[in-house]
């Protein structure tokens, strides 16, 4: 039996897509490299984990697991809407915020539509629009790793169907200030949908000069969708739940037609409610991440590395060599990081903030690897699967 006739007729937009790589598991690295402890610093997870209240909430679900979840996430929607000061009808929930990126792309994009985003980028900001047949235009960062608002403004036009931007940016961590965000929004056509990804919002919101995306977007007449997640600061990455706030509930009526009806399970909904109520755990998670982020960044700068300004729970830096080779040597020491391969950024690496002990392990391993010298380690293509953003 041959599948060739079927595969030959698959849309080119799908056939040509790069595969998104979700990184390596600690179990794989432990087994492959024979290390006793693994510092998993490639996925921007919360080292403090979820609030203890989450475990309590999950333990109370019991027999309800035999029933389908609430497709509207009603209790969570009411709770979150009250906190954000919006009507619940303007909220949509997904199996992680990336689920909502896919839904938005397939709802609002058609083949040939123009999408503008940044590079380096979160991979799904380019993959999902391309899957819908859109033409993706990427704008690089400035040499100092800050967001080039002037080039973004120059890139958009009345034909731009969607602008996708993460603030703080992933994988770099830099963020637009209030004035630059307002300038960018003012330059957009009323027909351009703004997909504003704030997956790392909680880490940046403690800074006085970080713009309130919900407020600034709400002050415009543009169509927009702001995305946030419970995966990062709330520590629920394993349960997969994110949410979006839309400019108009009419946008969500269309998106609901594209999403699967039970895309957020009972466990995730209950966990998110419990996590929202434990503000102390959220503050502790953010404080740990910001303190350790600054400590890692300073240690890297003292060693001569060029480090991006970060408002998130990770650090992005220029390794001075091909990051893929360096990442392979770090794996041998039990450290998982994220090397980058987008054109112009192949020497760069993203390292997540982990526990203090894991961060120390990373710094020590990096020092040991760097002392060996890249010339003795030609690029190992077997590590290529690590590099996709």
From TrEMBL:
InterPro entries membership: Aminotrans_II_pyridoxalP_BS, Aminotransferase_I/II_large, HisP_aminotrans, HistidinolP_aminotransfase, PyrdxlP-dep_Trfase, PyrdxlP-dep_Trfase_major, PyrdxlP-dep_Trfase_small
Keyword annotations from UniProtKB, A to Z: Amino-acid biosynthesis, Aminotransferase, Histidine biosynthesis, Pyridoxal phosphate, Transferase
SUPFAM superfamilies membership: PLP-dependent transferases (SSF53383)
Keyword Ribosomal protein included in the entry's annotation: no
Domain (Aminotransferase class I/classII large): residue spans on this chain: 37-366
Cofactor(s) the protein requires to work: pyridoxal 5'-phosphate
GO molecular function: histidinol-phosphate transaminase activity; pyridoxal phosphate binding
Pfam entry (one): Aminotran_1_2
EC number in record: 2.6.1.9
Annotated catalysed reactions: L-histidinol phosphate + 2-oxoglutarate = 3-(imidazol-4-yl)-2-oxopropyl phosphate + L-glutamate
Alphabetized PANTHER family for the sequence: HISTIDINOL-PHOSPHATE AMINOTRANSFERASE, HISTIDINOL-PHOSPHATE AMINOTRANSFERASE 2
Protein name per UniProt: Histidinol-phosphate aminotransferase
Organism this protein belongs to: Pandoraea thiooxydans
Organism phylogeny: Bacteria, Pseudomonadati, Pseudomonadota, Betaproteobacteria, Burkholderiales
Encoding gene, per UniProt annotation: hisC
């Amino acid at each position: 039996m041959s599948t060739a006739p079927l595969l030959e007729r698959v849309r080119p937009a799908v056939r040509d897509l790069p595969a998104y790589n979700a990184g390596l598991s600690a179990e794989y690295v432990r087994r492959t490299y024979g290390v006793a402890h693994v510092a998993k610093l490639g996925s921007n997870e919360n080292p403090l984990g979820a609030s203890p209240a989450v475990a309590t909430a999950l333990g109370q679900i019991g027999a309800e697991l035999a029933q389908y979840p609430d497709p509207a996430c009603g209790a969570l929607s009411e709770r979150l809407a009250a906190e954000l000061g919006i009507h619940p009808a303007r909220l949509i929930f997904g199996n992680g915020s990336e689920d909502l990126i896919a839904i938005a792309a397939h709802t609002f994009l058609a083949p040939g539509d123009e999408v503008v985003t940044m590079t380096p980028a979160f991979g799904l900001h380019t993959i999902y629009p391309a899957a819908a047949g859109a033409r993706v235009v990427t704008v690089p960062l400035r040499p100092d790793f800050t967001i080039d608002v002037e080039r973004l403004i120059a890139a958009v036009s009345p034909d731009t169907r969607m602008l996708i931007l993460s603030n703080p940016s992933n994988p770099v961590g830099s963020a637009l200030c209030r004035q630059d965000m307002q300038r960018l929004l003012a330059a957009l056509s009323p027909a351009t949908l703004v997909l504003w990804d704030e997956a790392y919002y909680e880490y940046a919101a403690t800074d006085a000069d970080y713009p309130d995306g919900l407020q600034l977007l709400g002050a415009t007449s543009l169509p927009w969708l702001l995305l946030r997640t419970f995966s990062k600061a709330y520590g629920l990455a394993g349960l997969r739940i994110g949410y979006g706030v839309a400019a108009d509930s009419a946008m969500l009526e269309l998106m609901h037609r594209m999403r699967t009806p039970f895309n957020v399970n009972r466990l995730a909904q209950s966990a998110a409610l419990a996590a929202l109520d434990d503000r102390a755990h959220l503050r502790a998670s953010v404080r740990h991440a910001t303190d350790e982020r600054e400590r890692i960044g300073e240690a890297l700068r003292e060693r001569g590395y060029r480090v991006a300004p970060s408002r998130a729970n990770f650090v992005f830096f220029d390794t001075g060599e091909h990051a893929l080779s360096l990442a392979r040597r770090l794996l041998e020491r039990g450290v998982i990081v994220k090397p980058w391969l987008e054109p112009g950024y192949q020497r760069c690496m993203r390292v997540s903030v982990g526990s203090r002990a894991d961060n120390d392990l990373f710094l020590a391993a990096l020092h040991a690897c760097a002392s060996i010298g890249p010339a003795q380690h030609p690029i190992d293509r077997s590590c290529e699967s690590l590099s996709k953003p």
